[in-house]
Amino acid sequence: MTPESESHATDRLDDDDYPAYTMGRAAEMIGATPGFLRAIGEARLITPLRSEGGHRRYSRYQLRIAARARELVDAGTPIEAACRIVILEDQLEEALRLNEELRRPAAGRTGGDS
């Protein structure tokens, strides 16, 4: 392995979107069944990538989303509603992040435009 390929492999370990986990390992990590992962996939909450052999592969980001859905389902929320809630929570988090990002330059401005 060359230093460049070692660096690239290490980068993937830090990448939240890298599909590193098989269905069995992903289910184990979030305390769910493979059937639960298939169900939230069918509900379009997450779309796992496929390996060359056609096996589902999940990223850390997808596992966080799946774990949140599992919490809601365990609390009695129907799976379709849990998926919708998680989607809305994720969209809100992204909107708040973008809003904060856009406000930062404005806070540094001085001026007579206001």
Automatic annotation (TrEMBL):
Coiled-coil zones: none
Q: Which PROSITE patterns match?
A: HTH_MERR_2 (PS50937)
Task: Cite the InterPro entries for this sequence.
Answer: DNA-bd_dom_put_sf (IPR009061), MerR-type_HTH_dom (IPR000551)
**Which Pfam family, just one, is annotated for this protein?**
MerR_1
The HTH merR-type domain covers which part of the protein? 20-88
Q: What is this protein called?
A: MerR family transcriptional regulator
> Which species is listed as the source?
Streptomyces silvae
